[in-house]
Amino acid sequence: xxxxVEQIMGMPIVxxxxxxxxxxxxxxxxxxxxxxxxxxxxxxxxxxxISRLDRGELELADAEPDVRWVFERCEQLRRETNGxxxxxxxxxxxxxxxVKGWAVDRAVDVLRAAELESFALSAGGDMRVVxxxxxxxxxxxxxxxxxxxVIEANDLAIATSAAYARGxxxxxxxxxxxxxxxxxxxxxxxxxxxxxxxATAAFAMGARGARWTATLDxxxxxxxxxxxxxxxxxxxPGV
Length: 239
Known about the structure:
Elements: E1 4-8, E2 11-17, H1 28-41, H2 49-54, H3 65-80, H4 96-113, E3 119-123, E4 126-130, E5 134-139, E6 147-153, E7 156-162, E8 182-189, H5 192-205, H6 209-213, E9 220-225, E10 230-232
Antiparallel strand pairs: 1-2, 2-3, 3-4, 4-7, 5-6, 7-8, 8-9, 9-10
């Protein structure tokens, strides 16, 4: 079937399925899950649990189990990244750097439960590919029609953190400033939640993030510095 696109969580959600005899209706449970995530975690909805927690109108102990899990994982990641991944880096509560990838990982589980075997699911450019093989281009941060690398994979999560799409939205939590010596960081691995969080943390670290990504277990990275130097970890699956 051709790609199906829905606007959810303030971004295009794109799914392409290669399995035979799949209809748009077969994808609705997956889109319903993502809509539920948006209702619960959106920082733009006044009635979301995240907004109510941020205003102090809801205690974490009274929040939904998924919300409590996300908070616990954000705290684990804050410690793991020496504070460079921080759900409060902007000065307000915003776990979006984890929620998007986590939601996509769970959406993949929904599609697999429906016995789909070969598909690609993209949320705002970050992706999970299943089955395959799939060829995925990594956008060049300075050449909007250019490709910095091409990845070929069967089952992989791919997340990129950069300033070219949304401006300086990733800040170093320790200084409150956006890094000036790095253009983009792409992290690949088995899960999008971790890949997205690691890419955010590494980008916030600036140029030194490239060395940090080399220490990650099970994840590989491609970093493009401000002078356009390209650095990759040993196992990055470039083609």
